[in-house]
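Q: For a teaching session next week I want to show students how multiple molecules come together into a single three-dimensional assembly. I've collected the sequence lines for a complex. Could you give me the predicted structure tokens for the whole thing so I can convert them for display?
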Amino acid sequence: MIPQPSQAPLLETQGLTRTFGHGNQVVRAVDGVSFSVQVGEIIAIVGESGSGKSTLARLLLRLMEPTGGQILLHGQDVTKLHHPAELKLYWQKVQAVFQDPFAAFNQFYTNNRVLGRSLDVLGRRISNAERLQRSTNALIEVGLDPADTLDKWPHQLSGGQVQRVMIARALMVSPELLVADEPTSMLDASLRVTVLNLLMDLRKRHNMTILFITHDLGQAYYMSDRVLVMYQGQLVEQGPVQEVLENPQHDYTKRLMADVPLLHGRKSMLMRAN
Amino acid sequence: MRIKNIKAVYAAGPGPMVKAVDDVSLNIRKGEVLGIAGESGCGKSTLAAVIALTARPPLYVKGGSMELDGDVIQFTEQVTPSADWHGKLVALLPQRALNSLNPTARVRDFVVDVMRAHDPTIQPQEAIEAARVRLKHLSLPPRVLDSYPHQLSGGMRQRTVAVISTLLDPKVLIADEPTSALDVSSQKQLIELLKLLLEYEFITRVAYITHDLPMLSNIADRIAVMYAGKLVEVGDTEQIVSAPRHPYTHALITSTLDPEPEIRHHRLEGIQGAPPDLRYPPPGCSFHPRCPLAMDICSREAPPKIGTEDHFAACWWVAQQTKGETEKGAVR
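A: Of course. Below is the structure for the complete assembly, covering every listed component.
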């Protein structure tokens, strides 16, 4: 169910750049990145530590100012949005799931309060009944029992459950785009799969668009339609996930594929192709 | 190396103690890498702390013994092994190397500290020179000695700590999730380094603890799978990966995500539920609430160990299968 490219993209970046430092110390963390995302697509952004994946995520979430380039949502340049009210409108459409759910939550707030507060981004008065209704729906959506979860604190839940609450928090405002920055890297392999399945189900049910950032090619291969490979701040390769991983063109992608640890005795797709 | 009947508990606050490691016995042979696998909260890091002799309250070792090339430690309530155990016999490679390096000192100062802790007469220059030679031998740049920790990349820091912690040629290196904070390329380099350390006989054996089975299967000779503080299966890497016997091992293996054509067209299920609360471990087999093959007896009696000491699965279902086979054999 890969959407037709003839549709107008949901999100598009043109020459997106972010540099840190100045003079000869300048680091080009994100360097002229251009890509587009269609409605309902799951896109994986892969690369090693320090390749600029997370900086790109923060730029897309408007948590950090780009030093150059544009981000277009429905064709409108959102890098010009600065007023809190404008940004809140943007965050109603674009939401995030972060790497460490325990760090993203205020540990003195119950899940009920954490979820309820995320509705503040709507910028209007919301009745307690509506807050509760939306929290309940969001928790059911991610496969948690609201009666059991709402009054608990984050430390009373397991890592996988907190990450689900984190996803529920993002779903509270029914966003169009979910930016998931390494959402499973703190989780065990057995839980990892359940979180990935949840994200795939959300796409199926709501045609949600997901930008999935990971350094794990296995996860990218499992759930995404297209993959973007980042290396030293630049997009070095992009395309349908099967094409890119089965027949990588760029040397960096080849190296990445060769470095993935496989279960004992399995041969990588590269080795089989040769 | 032989560890026997290790028991360790966390005593925190009122209420029952957490039985984090419950009666674990393992052997690690010379030149061998033993992998210890399991989910978070299954007791693998606690086991690492016990055998690395770094157990501190609220973790209490309740019993067991460790034998290492002739030296024996009996774990009782209070155990203070001689200083030689740390570093010379047992070395620990922790998860986050940044936390084990002093951010305000150069790496070479750390080397001097480590060497002097064991031989106060050694001159700083000698200690640094020894580390320089070791780094060169392992094809790592000796310039790391003159760097501060923040100037090194995560992978390089982890490799540096691996080299320094093995400067005294320990008999066993305990690697506790050393690669979980690294990306795949740095993971591979660290694995290569560990293999090299074994090949040059700088270390005699490795206990490699991780939840990452694909990674583990590339370095370990044998794998021990832990669940809820107990060993549920021990076997050769190839057997564990291609023919797991315990349902838990099977579930772990099938939830790994290799970039493989097969996984893209299947929906993997993972393992439903969560590991049990070890303050109140379930009766019988601790995996039975999550086990797809659970039988009546699983919730009543602890499962028997089927197989030999170095190669077994603790499971009623496996017991039934094996029994069936021997009976079939008898009929024939």
